[in-house]
Amino acid sequence: MIEKKSLRFVIDTAASHSILFEGKLPDRVKLLGCNTFSPDFLYTDCKVVEFYMKNRKGEIIKSPAMIVPSATSDEIDFDGLLGMSYLNNKVIIMDLSKGDLYVKN
Length: 105
Prior knowledge:
six-stranded mixed β-sheet; 8 strands
């Protein structure tokens, strides 16, 4: 989620970074610079926002996502891609029969 808006992600293990489509974000969301990903990046190279995931224990895990221009909501039914910037060093289990995703730090 960002602020109190729930997000829908597609998992993309080939993506280096998680991304969110600009048109899917709440108004006036706090933006960060591209140097959030690496000190080698310039602040102005891209726009970044932090999103939050809540685990079963209610603990909040935050992660950055790069903001990219978006297609219209008629063309896509998800808000972004969950890339390796989030998935790296985590154990991932997908239960396709139930539609559940388990992520362990």
